[in-house]
Amino acid sequence: MKSAKSKQRLNDMRTPGRSKQNLFQGERDPVEVYCRLRPMPRDTDISCIKILSPTTILLTPPSTAVSYRNEGAKTMKYTFKEVFPPDTNQQDVFDKVALPLVEGLVKGKNGLLFTYGVTGSGKTFTMTGEPHNCGVLPRCLNILFKTINELQAHKYVFKPDKMNMFDVQSEAEAMLERQQELHKFRSNKKNNSNPNLAMSEAEVTKIDGINEDNQYAVFVTYIEIYNNSVFDLLEDGPPITKNLPVKLIREDAANKMYVHGVTEIEIKSAEEAFDAFYLGLKRKRMAHTTLNAESSRSHSVFTIRLVQAPVDEMGEAVIQNKEFLAISQLSLVDLAGSERTNRTKNTGQRLREAGNINKSLMTLRSCMEILRENQINSTKNMVPYRESKITHLFKNYFEGHGQVRMIVCANPRAEDYDETIQVMRFAEMAAEVEVAKSQINNAASTLGLMVGRRKANRLFTTARENINRPEAKDLEMDLGLVYSLGPDFPSLELKSSQASHIIKELIAHLEMRISRRETLKRSKALKDEKLRSMLLDIEKESMDVKSENVSLRGQLAAANRRNKALEERVTSAENTSLSYQRKLSEMTEYTTALKRDLQEKELLLSQNKLDKEKQKKILERKYHHKIAAEHEKAKEIHSEKQQLRNEVEEKENRLRIIAQALNGGRGDNIGDIKRSTAEIAAQTSIRDFTPGSTPRALPAHLLTPFTSAPQTRESRGTPATSRRGVAVANPRHKRSLSADGKGWVEHAPSKIVPMGTVMKPNITNSKFVNKLTNVKDIANSKKSKYCLISQEQDTDGELETKLYKGDIVPTCGGGAQVIFNDVEMLKQFSPTREHDNSRRTSANTCARHSGKRRDTGCSPPHTPSNTNAKTQDGGSSQELIISSNIPYLYSFALNAGCLNLSTSVLCGESKTGDNCVERLGENLKEYSVGLP
Ligand SMILES: Nc1ncnc2c1ncn2[C@@H]1O[C@H](COP(=O)(O)OP(=O)(O)OP(=O)(O)O)[C@@H](O)[C@H]1O
Hints:
Blueprint: H1 2-12, H2 17-23, E1 28-30, E2 32-37, E3 49-53, E4 56-59, H3 66-71, E5 76-79, E6 82-84, H4 90-106, E7 111-117, H5 123-127, E8 129-130, E9 133-134, H6 136-148, E10 158-160, E11 166-168, H7 171-187, E12 214-226, E13 229-232, E14 246-251, E15 257-260, E16 265-267, H8 270-283, E17 286-287, E18 295-296, E19 299-310, E20 326-334, H9 341-344, H10 348-377, H11 389-399, E21 403-410, H12 417-430, E22 434-436, H13 443-447, H14 453-468, H15 480-483, H16 500-663, H17 667-688, H18 700-708, H19 713-716, E23 744-747, E24 766-769, H20 776-779, E25 785-793, E26 799-810, E27 816-829, H21 834-845, H22 864-871, E28 877-883, E29 889-895, E30 898-904, H23 914-928
Parallel strand pairs: 2-6, 2-21, 7-20, 7-21, 23-24, 23-25
Antiparallel strand pairs: 1-22, 3-4, 4-5, 8-9, 10-11, 12-13, 12-16, 12-19, 13-14, 14-15, 17-18, 19-20, 25-26, 26-27, 27-28, 29-30
C-alpha cells in the first residue's frame, strides 16, 4: 500500500529539485546524485537520452520500449547534481564526485560513493577504470597518500581491535610487529604482476587544509556481497572465492555496522593499496553475459579507513589514548547492474545471481523510499535495512553522519530504455534523501595543545641538529617560530605630532607580546612541571632499575655458578661415557674374537667327530670283514678236515675192500676185486662228481642248470660212459651256473669268444651291454643282477672266461651300485698236455663256492677216469670252475653323473691268492676303459 503511494508520489515528481527547498535545512546534506552517460557501444545504436543542460537529461522512450506501449511517447526529464556526457574523462568525474569525499575523509568525515545502473552501463569503468585510465577508486588512493605521505604514523602504531575500533600501540610495540612482518615478507614474495594504477606526479594533487598536528594511518577492507552473502576478498588463502567463508554484519560499540572478522590491511602507499585491491579483484565474481563481457555478479565494497590521532605537545609521538582517535571512512561501492532476465537470457546460476542482484537493488530502493518518506513526513516507519546485506551495511551512512554520493551510470541506447528509466526514477528518489553532516573531531583543542607544534618541533629538531654540526656557524637558523613573541615591533619613529595612533599600535603590540609571553610562560611552566615530574619518574624508575639490576646481577652470578657446575658435571659425565664406550667397544671386539674362536673350535670338533665316525665305520667294516674271513677260514679248515677225513675213510674203505678181496676166493676173488674197485670208483664218482670236470657231488641247485640243459648232438652220441651232467661241449649247456632266472645285465665285450661254446654261457632273461657308457644301463634296466664277462688267455695260451656276478643296488643319488658276490671261471685245456692235468687240478682245488652255500667243499683231485671220460669228446677238455665265496666287493657308484669304478676290498681270502683279486681288479678296470 505504502509503496504504491510512494510510487504515485514519485511519478508526480518530475525533478528532484522541486522538493529540495523543503529539505535543505539544518546540519543535513542530501545524497548527491550524478549521472554519467557512457559512449554508445555501436555507431548504429539509437540514443534515448538527450543532455539538456549540465544537470538535466531528457529520456525519450523508443517505440520498442515496454513503457512506450503503456505510457506512450512521454518524455521524462531528470535533474542531477551534474551530468557527465559520454566524452567526460575519469579525472573530471573524480574531481567533481570523489575528491570532496576524500577531502572529507582527511578531515574526519565519513563518505559513501556508489555507482548504480543497468548492467553494462559503465559502473565498473567509473569506479575502477582501466590501467592507464584509472577510475575513482585508484585516484582516491593516489591523492590520499599524496596528502598524508609525510604525516603517516609508523606502521602498527594503530592496530584494529577486530571490533571496528583501533588501539594505539607504543613505538616499541609497533616496531616489534614491523620486524615480524619484515620476516614474513621475506618468505612471501610480493606479486608485482598487477597492472599499475599509479598516476604520474603531475596528475596527483594534494588536498589542502590537512591537520599537520595529527598522525595518520590508512586501512583498507574489500568485501563482496554475492547472493546476499558477505565474503572477505582480502582473506588469506587461495585466490578462489569458492572456499571463502561467509562473513557476518555486526554492530560495534558506537552502533556502527561493520563486517565482523574482515581482513583490514594497513596500507602505507598507493601501490600497496593497489596490490590489495587487485588481490580482491581477482576473487571478485565476474561473468560473461550477453550484455557485458565482464559483468559484475556481486556488489563490491572497498572501504578506506583513515585513522588520525594528535601528536603530543612535543610534536613527535602520537598520544597514547584511543579516545583521541578520529576514524573516518570512505566506502567505494560498485553495485552489480540491474538486468531484465528476458533481455539477458540468463539461465541457471546467472539467473539466480540476477535475481539476487535485482532483489538487493529493490531493497536499496525501498529503504531509500521509506527513509525519504520519514524525512519528508517526519514519520518513523521502519526502514528494512536488514532485508539485504548491502543496505544493512549502509545503514549508518543514511542514519548516521557522512556524505553520500551516487553516480548513476547510463547507457543511452534505446534497447536499455526500460531499465534506464527505472534507474533514473531511483536516482531521482535517492537525491531527496538527506544525511546528517559529519562532525569534525578535533581532539587537540580539547587537550589544549598548540596548533603547529609538529612543524615547530621539526624546525627545532633541525636547528638543534644543525647547531651540533661544525659548520653550524655558517648556517642561518630560524628558531623564531618556537620562541617568537609575535611579529616585529611596528615602526617607532615619530614623524609627526599625531603619534597617538603609533602609541596605540605600540601598546597593542606590547599587550599582544605580553599576552604571548604569558602564554609562553604558562607553557614553559607547564613544561617545567612536566619535565620535573618526568625527571622524578625517571629518577624513580632509575632507582628501581638499579635495585632490580643488583638483584638480577646476583641472580645472574648464581645462575653462572650453577651453569659452571653443571658444565663440569656434563664434562665429567661425557668423559665417563667416552671411557665406557671405549671399554664397550673393546669388549665387543673381544667377544667377537671369542665367538670366532669358538666357531673354529666347534668346526674342528665336528670335523674330528666326523673323521672318527668315518674311521669307526671303516674299522667296523674291517672288523666285520676280518670276522667273516675268519669264519670262512674256519669253514675252509673244517671242510678240509672233513675232506681229509673223507679221504681217509675212502682209503680205509678201499683198503678194506682190497683186504676183503685178498681174503676171498681166486676167480671170483679177482672178479670181486674188480667189482669192488668199480664200486668204489662208482661210489666216489657218484659222490664227488661235478658237472664238467670233477667227480665230486654238487648240490642239486648248482647242478640243475647243467643237467637240465639240452645235450649237443655230439654229446648225445656219446656212450653211456660219459658222466651225468657232463655237457662241456654242448652249447645248450652254456648257461651260467648261477643264472637263476632273475633279470640280468650281461656286460661283455663285443669281441668275445664265439657263441656256441661253453666259454660263453647263455644267461636267460638278460640285457646285453657291450660298453657301459651310461649308468642308466644298470640303474634303469629293471634288472637286479649284474654279470661282467671277461675272456683272456692264460699263460699257456688257453682261453679262460670269468664271470663276475653281483647284485644291483639302487643308490639314493639316482645311480646304482653293484655288489659283486660271485665269480665263475670257465677254462678250456687240452687233455693231451700232461702238465695241464696238474694245472687243472690246481684250478680245481682252488674252486670255491659262495657264502650263500652252493657247495660245501673243494673238488677232489682229478682222477684219471674223469679225465679219460672227457677226452673222449674230441680231444679237448672243457672244465667249469666255480670260483665263489668271493670275499671281495667291487662297486660301481654314480658320482656326479659319471660312472666310476671304485674297488673296495672288504676282506680277502682265496685259495687262488691275491693274484686272483688283482686280476679281477684288472679285468674290471679294463672294462671301465671308455666309460665317461
Ligand atoms: N564512459 C565510458 N567510456 C568508455 N567505455 C566505457 C564507459 N563506460 C563503460 N564503458 C565500457 O563498457 C563496458 C561495460 O562497462 P562496465 O563493465 O563498467 O559495466 P557495468 O555497469 O559495470 O556492468 P555490470 O553491471 O554488468 O558489471 C566496458 O567494456 C567498458 O570499457
